[in-house]
Structures are given as structure tokens and as C-alpha cells.
Amino acid sequence: MRERRISYEQLTLLAHWLDSEPEVPADKWFKRFPGFTVCGDGELIRTFLIVGQVPDGREIEKDS
Prior knowledge:
- This protein has one helix at residues 8-19, and strands at 28-33, 36-41, 44-50, 58-59.
- With 64 residues, it is α+β, with helices and mostly antiparallel strands.
- It has one domain.
- Helices cover 19% and strands 33% of the residues.
- The mean pLDDT is 89.
- It contains one helix and four strands.
- The N and C termini lie far apart (23 Å).
């Protein structure tokens, strides 16, 4: 996360989303947040992308 320059505030958004126990696909997925995208595979988060990097998988809806 430091390499990608993801701020504390951005991580807080991610933490709140994770606290909501979102349903994610069993395969590759991604969710966009302001300033970064989190990518996962099943229940696991695999990487963080910065603006301009292209995610792979199914996009999780904004309200999920």
C-alpha cells in the first residue's frame, strides 16, 4: 500500500466496506474507491491498483 501511495483515509473507506461483509464472486473481482482499486480472488484481496492501472475480473457495484 505504501508503494501505491494509498492514504489512511482511503484505507478507512476500504475498512468500512469490509466491515459491511460484502458478497464477492468466487473468482476474480475488483472494487473502485476514490484514488485506488482493490482487486480480489474469491474472499481474498490480492492487490491494490492506482488510477490508470486496469483491473481484471468482475466489478463490484458501488453500493455493495
